[in-house]
Structures are given as C-alpha cells and as structure tokens.
C-alpha cells in the first residue's frame, strides 16, 4: 500500500486509541494488515522503474504534509498520531537496500531475510487496478480523520 495510506491509517490509530502502549504496536501491525489488502503496484519488478521513483517521492512528500497538518492543527493527541503514522509507514524502509540495489543495477542477494520474504508474500494483490482501493482507503481515512480532529 502507498506510504500515504499507511500514514493515514497510523494517524487514525493514534487519534482513536490514544494509549501509546496499545496504539504504537497496533500502528506497526497495521502496516502488514494494510499490505495484505489488495493495493496499487505492478509486482516486484516496478522497483526499477522511473515512475516508481517519482511516485515514491510524491508519496513521501504527502506523508510529510500529513505530519505538517497535524503539527499545525494540533488536535488532541496530535503527536501520538504523527508517531503512529511514522511507525505505520516505517516497515517499508526494509525495502530501501533492495530499491538502491535495483536503481544501481546490482543483482539482488540470493539470501532474502525472512521478514522481507514475509513482507513480500503478504502483498498477494499488487496491481494497477489496486489504485481504486487506495483511493477509497485514502478518502475514507481523510474523512474519518477530519471528523475526529476538527
Ligand atoms: Zn509494506
């Protein structure tokens, strides 16, 4: 799932759960639940494509904007919402070495860590048509966050 939707989900968890001892692990867990839902992508070969790099930059930029909105508007529990948003997004950082290797044209390691294999395997439906799910997910969470935070 896009970083934007992971961040929106994490922020929602932070604002609703409010107990950090529950919200923080739940935000982290939400990443893998969201990745198991059909979402946008074109399989694992897209990591080398230029459009993916551009999308990634925009996606990260939107996450920064989301954090900025919470930091500016400061609804109750805004800081926990930002931390949960970061935590919910953070597992995708494990793809970074993979991304860098692909961008440099270096072959992948033959030995893939178990957690990375799990992270890839749960994303059973990562196709262009998954963009519809991403759009509905984003609209739903933006609506809920607006209703809660305003
Ligand atoms: Zn992921």
From the alpha carbons, calculate the radius of gyration and give it in angstroms: 16 Å
Estimate the strand proportion. Answer: under 5%
Q: Residue share in helices?
A: 55-70%
Element-by-element helix/strand order: HHHHHHH
- Average of pLDDT: 92
Euclidean distance between termini CA atoms: 26 Å
Low-confidence stretches: none
Shape: globular
Count of DSSP strands: 0
The quaternary structure here is: single chain
How many structural domains are formed by the residues? 1
The secondary-structure class comes to mainly alpha
The distinct bound ligands, ions and cofactors come out as: zinc ion
The largest pleated sheet is described as: none
Discrete helix count: 7
Structure overview:
The protein is mainly alpha-helical. The chain has one domain. It is 69% helix and 0% strand. It is built from 7 helices and no strands. The mean pLDDT is 92. Zinc ion (ZN) binds next to α2.
Task: Write a compact overview of the structure shown.
Helices cover 69% and strands 0% of the residues.
What's the arrangement of secondary structure elements?
Blueprint: H1 3-17, H2 20-36, H3 50-73, H4 78-89, H5 96-104, H6 114-121, H7 131-149
Helix pairs in contact: 1-2, 1-3, 1-4, 1-7, 2-4, 3-4
Residues 31, 35, 91-92, 119 line the site of zinc ion.
């Amino acid at each position: 799932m896009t970083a934007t939707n992971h961040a929106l989900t994490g922020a929602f968890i932070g604002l609703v759960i409010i107990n950090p001892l529950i919200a923080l692990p739940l935000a982290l867990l939400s990443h893998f639940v969201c990745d198991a839902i059909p979402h946008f992508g074109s399989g694992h070969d897209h990591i080398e494509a230029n459009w993916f790099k551009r999308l990634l930059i925009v996606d990260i930029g939107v996450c920064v904007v989301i954090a900025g909105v919470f930091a500016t508007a400061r609804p109750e529990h805004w800081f926990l919402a930002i931390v949960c948003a970061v935590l919910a997004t953070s597992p995708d950082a494990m793809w970074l070495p993979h991304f860098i290797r692909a961008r440099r044209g270096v072959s992948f390691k033959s030995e893939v860590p178990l957690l990375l294999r799990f992270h890839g395997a749960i994303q059973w439906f990562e196709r262009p048509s998954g963009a519809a799910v991403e759009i509905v997910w984003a609209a739903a969470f933006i609506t809920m966050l607006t209703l809660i935070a305003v």
